[in-house]
Amino acid sequence: MKQLIPAEIVREMDAYIIGQEAAKRAVAIAMRNRWRRQQVTSELKDEIYPNNIILIGPTGVGKTELARRLANLAGAPFIKVEASKYTEVGYVGRDVESMIRDLMDTAVGKVKGEQRELLKDSVAATVEERLLDLLQPPTRSRRRRSASEDDRTRRAKRTEQTRRRRQRDLLRQQLREGLLDGQMVELELPEEPMQMMQIFSSQGMEEMGINLPEAMGGDKRVRRRTVTVAEARNHVTEEEMDQLVDMDRVVREAVRRTETAGIVFLDEIDKIAAPAESSEAGPDVSRSGVQRDILPVVEGTTVTTKYGMVRTDHILFIAAGAFSAVKPSDLIPELQGR
């Protein structure tokens, strides 16, 4: 997280967003307070909670962009969701806790991407050798000859080895200069498994990351494809980096970032607000139910994800809405106070 004071954060946002000075100051102070929390002792960290924000304004004034730029400055996991897409527990649809699962997926992807960038240089030599093997397949080993192999045969073998080394060096130079990027090679690629399956749980319909072939003990299937050298370089680089990335470490760091620096932008919060004069029956009941489901997530709870348990106590929630047909006071009082 960058050590910027609120005035510097506001200046950074001025380059992208016109006006909205009060909103900029509010999110800048919220971001600075998160940095301050990281500087105190561990005993006090749990006692400092973020100040969640609600932004009010018509479409196009920069509410979403404000939150997105804030996340970029902080280098924090960020997700934008629409409150109107969630349903009350017990109804068909996505439950509100899925926003935390989506935020965790974003954090894992972000941390994994950072790790891969760090490994890109370290795998460059291995990738180059594998590409050269595709361009110049190694010769098949012949049956061992007897001890009476004549000098002529041995000289021929040495000559062939020298020729192949020179050819490989020439290919290496052309590969580095990008002259072979359009050449076609055959590459073995793993088939993409059906990793995601939908299940019905007590919390609604969610997706679980289950690799069915691996779960059933089957081997990964591969198929040969003809691709360009440029495409093969990307595939081989991805494969080599995936082998080196420590996913346990990635998940631990992603959980830490989500819990301490995650930002959830809850758009269209006004769509789940029920007017004060509305009846107690009909869709307004479900709207109030969604608000009550959001309340514990905003207050602080523990959400189960496929990466483990994630606490939401210190996640920053930024709600936004036009509030043209309803007022912020039409939200349930408990949610207003958060």
Describe the fold and architecture.
The model is unreliable at 195-205 (pLDDT under 50). The strands form four sheets. The chain has a four-stranded parallel β-sheet, sandwiched between helices. It has a two-stranded antiparallel sheet with strand order 3-6. By secondary structure, it is an alpha/beta fold. Helix 1 packs across helix 2, helix 2 (21-39) packs parallel to helix 4 (63-74) and helix 5 crosses helix 10. The chain has a domain at 6-116 and 251-336: P-loop containing nucleotide triphosphate hydrolases (Rossmann fold, 3-Layer(aba) Sandwich). The two termini are 24 Å apart. A hairpin with a 2-residue loop joins strand 4 and strand 5 (204-209). It has helices at residues 6-14, 21-39, 42-45, 63-74, 98-119, 124-135, 151-176, 212-215, 229-244, 247-261, 283-299, 333-336; strands at residues 53-56, 78-82, 184-190, 196-201, 204-209, 222-228, 263-267, 302-305, 308-311, 316-321. The chain contains twelve helices and ten strands. It is elongated.
